[in-house]
Design brief:
Keywords: Nucleotide-binding. By secondary structure, the chain is an alpha/beta fold. The chain contains 22 helices and 22 strands. Strands 9-10-8-11-12-13 form a six-stranded mixed beta sheet, with helices on both faces.
Amino acid sequence: MLVWVGSAEVPGLVPCSVGTEDTVVPLEESKRLAARFSNAEWLEHEAGHVFSQRSEDLRRLGEFLELRREQLLPEELASVEEVEADDRLSQEQKDEVEALASIFMEELTIFKPTCPVRLAVKVLHERASLRFFFPPLYPQVPCVCDLDSEDLGVQLRRRELLEAVEAAREPEGFPSVMAMVQEAQRWIEEHGVTIDQGLPSDGTAEEDEPAEAWWLCEDAQVDQELLTQAEKKAAELLPDGSSGSRSWARQCGAGAYGKPWRFTVGLVGKPSAGKSTLFNAATRCEKEAAMAPHPFTTIDPNVEPGWFAVPCPSVTLQCQDECEPEHGRADRGQRRFPLLVKDVAGLVPGAYLGYGRGNAFLNDLLDADSLVHVVDASGRSDAEGVDHGKAGKGHDPLKDVEWVRQEIHMWIFCNVRAKWHSVRKRAKFAPLQPLAAERLFGLFTGYHCSQQLVAQVYESTGHRIATLPQDVLNWSEFDLHLLVACFLRVRFPIVIALNKADTAEAQEHIVRAQAALGNAVAVSARSELWLLQQQRKGHLTYLEGGGPQSIAITEHAPEDVRDQVSQLRQKVLEVYGSTGVMEVLSRAVLQRSPVFCCPVSEFTTLQSLSSGGYSTKSKLVTMMMLRPLSTVEEVHAALKNEKLVRGDLVRAEMLHISTGQVSVLRREEVLKPEGAQAATFVLRILTNKKAK
C-alpha cells in the first residue's frame, strides 16, 4: 500500500509493503512511486496486494493519512448536477445519487471530486452519518460504508450498528445505499441510540405516558371506525384526480428529474383475483406468470415492461398517415407507450400483521408510482382468494376494495404509530421542538418520497407546520389516521380493475361498483390475453384497447376461434367498449398528470429527433414522458440524457397543437396542459452543438 501526495518528496513515509504476486499494482509501478518519497522503507513479501499488519506500521500509516486528510479527501461539497455531468461515472451510479438526493434532500451530502463518488447520509440528525464510497465498478462490486459520529452513545455501539448495516446490503448488481441507511435508522430507533439521550434527567421529556395511550397499543389494536372516518375525510380533502395542479408525483417513486419518467404500476389484490392474468396480458410476456385459481400463485414479484395508451398529437395536427409512433399505435388515434408492470403476491386480510406474505408483499410496492387494485368482479372468490365457482357468487367485490386499501393503510399507520413516542419527546422538549417536524416527516420517507411531500400532505390535513410541536401532543388516533389516509392517496393512488368482466355474474357488480367508486374500470384480462395469443398464432389481428371493430379474423382461423371471437365481442367488447386492460393502465399513469413531449427538428416537417440528434423521415416518431410541472430546462436535460440533443440549451419553441401557432419558451417555464387535455407538447429544442 503506497500513499503519494503531489510530486514533491514527502519525508516520513511509512514502510512500503509490496507483494511480488500483486496483480493489482505492478511491482515496477510501486518502485517508481516509492522513489518519489524520501527515506521510504521497502518491504517485499511473496503475497498479493496487502499491507503490513504490524501494529506499528498501521499506526504510522494512520498518522500519515490523518495529517494529510484535507489534501487526500477534501470536504468541498458537490451537487447532483456535477455528478450527472461527470462522464467517468456509470449511469447506475448517477441514477442512485439522483434518487438519494430526491429522497433525503438536505440529509445528503456529496463531496468533491465527484469521481469516485463519496457521499454521506445523516442517520441521527447532525450527530451521526453513514459515509459511502463507490468503487468504479459499483454496484457490481460492494460500496464502502463507514460511520461518522461524535455522539458517545453511537460510538459505544459502533460495531453493532455497522454489522446491522452491512447485513442490509442488497445483492451485487443492485444499489445498496437506501437499504443500508434505512437499516441504520431502524437500528438506532430500535436500540434507543437517539437524540433523546441528550435530554435533561429531571423528567422534562421523560414523564410516564398513560398506559392506555393510543400510540402504545399493539398492531392488532386499530379503531376501524376512526380509520373509516379518516378515509372519508381524506377523500374530501384530496379527491381522485386532484393532483393535476400539485407536484405530488415529482417528489416520490423511483424516478428522477431531468430524465424520462420510467413509470411503474403495481398490481395489488387478494389471491386469484386475476393479477397474474392481467400482468401477462399487459406485458405480452412470452414466459407467462403463473396463473391458477388458488392463493399465492405468485410468490416473488413479476416485473416486465408493459404498455398504456396516450393521445397522439398527430390526430389534431392531421398527419396520422405520416406518423409512425416508435412503440406502435393503439385504438382511437392513440399511441402505445411503455411502462413497468409489477405483479406481487396476493394480499390477504391481516397482511400488515404478517399473515400471508405480510410485509414482504407490502415492501414490494415501494417503487410503484401508482397501484391497480385487481378485484374479482364475479364475486366467486372469498376474501382468502379461494375460487368457489358459481357457488361463491354471493361475495361482494366492494368489500374487497375496502379491506385491501385498509391493509396498506394499516401497514403505514402501525409503522408510524410504533415510533410516535419519538415525535412526542421532541415536541415536549423546547430546544428540540424544531426537530419534531423532521422526525415526523422522516417516518414516511422510507416509502420512497421526500420530506417536502410529507410536509405538503401534513398541511393538506388542515394543520400548520409552525405549530406542529404543540399540535402533535394533542393528536388523537384519528389525526394520525387522517395523515396516513391523505399520504396514501398522494403516494399510492389507486385505480380499481373490476376483473372477470366476461363472467355472467360480473355485470351487476360492475355497474354498482362503478357508481360507488368512480375510478373503476371493467376488465377482462382473460379475453385480452386470449386475443394476443391468437394474434401470435396468426388467427386474427387485434388493435389493443379497441372495441368490436378492432378484431379482424384471418381466413385461416379455425371455427372454434371464430366462435370465441363472436362471444367475446358480445359479452365484453360491445358491453364495455374494450377488454379494459390498456384503459386501466392508462388511467393509472394519467392520474399522475405526466408531461409528454414530442421533440422535432422543424415544425414545418414535424420530423422527430433520433439518437445523436438526427431527424427521422417520419413525423412525430419520438415521445418522452416526464414528471408533472417539468420545466423546459428539464426537457432539455432529458433529451440530452437520451442522446437526442447535444450541448447547452440556446432556445426552446413550442407548437400549440390546437392553433398551430409557435411560441418561444423560457428555460424555467413550466409545461402545463392546455385546457382539460393531456399534457402533450410538440417542442423544438435548439442547442449550441450539432449532431455528431
